[in-house]
Amino acid sequence: MPPLNTSRPSPVTFLLMGIPGLEHLHVWIGIPFCSMYVVAVVGNVTILAVVRAERSLHEPMFLFLCMLSITDLVLSTSTLPRMLCLFWLGAHDIAFDACLTQMFFIHSFTAMESGFFLAMAFDRYVAICHPLRHTTILTHARITIMGMIVVIRGIAFFSPHPILLKQLPYCRTRIIAHTYCEFMAVVKLACMDIRATKSYSLSMASIIGSCDAILIAVSYAFILRSVFRLPSREAGFKALGTCGSHVCVILVFYSTAGFSIFTHRFGKNVPAHIHIFIANMYLLVPPFLNPIVYGVRTKKIRERVLRTLMVKVA
């Protein structure tokens, strides 16, 4: 990594541009984004409340689901409110320290999201391929350890990002061509050789994302093999339906995140508005879809919510 030049002070504020070329549509783009955020907050809070209140749901699958819900709440709340202020109120200014804080939460919790997808895939693998040993393999102590490893990994790999940017000199424009403080968008504003810094960030994201995605694919491959061996076709179709919806959410997350990573590395000709729009999708869509796929489609959670609503109506 090149030596850091601290002779120039860090800027007091940055200016978020939004989606370049689509500034005239910011107000309209904010409407579906806000709707997705509301669904994400209500859905994930509902999952947390239901699992906390229902002791029968204190199982590995639902405990991992709660960890994923907390991650989704932090991830969406660290981006959407500030983004809506930009779209609807024209609030382009963001303090330098606030920008670095937002960046830390976005990148570290995106890594945690990936880790919890892997943990849930492993849970499904054990539940379907080794059902008799499910509760003995995934004890509460092991679930806690797995959750801590995912959190520590996200913090350890991405806490250097804001520290590195804090040390860089900035002598170019203060305008960030993005809707939020993404590392690659901010580091471009530094007036020094940033190739090593960019390579570090892309390498960390690529290693974590690819390793998690490969292990998830292996888990579901074993799951599919076990499902096709089930004697009951009805049970097989039920398992395929459940796993299929999970795989769809995972594919949305990894395809959009992967597109963003590869665009930074190879996609010099990809229009900026397409890149930034898709970069927003991998932060907005999973928190929006997860409560629907993992919550509404889960019979125990759905029945508990309906029972609670019926009691309140009565």
TrEMBL record:
InterPro entries per the UniProt record, alphabetical: GPCR_Rhodpsn, GPCR_Rhodpsn_7TM, Olfact_rcpt, OR51/52/56-like
Subcellular location: Membrane
Positions of the G-protein coupled receptors family 1 profile domain: 43-294
Main location class: membrane
Recorded GO CC terms: plasma membrane
Domain of life: Eukaryota
Role, per record: Putative odorant or sperm cell receptor.
Protein name (Swiss-Prot/TrEMBL): Olfactory receptor 52D1-like
Organism listed in the record: Mustela putorius furo (European domestic ferret)
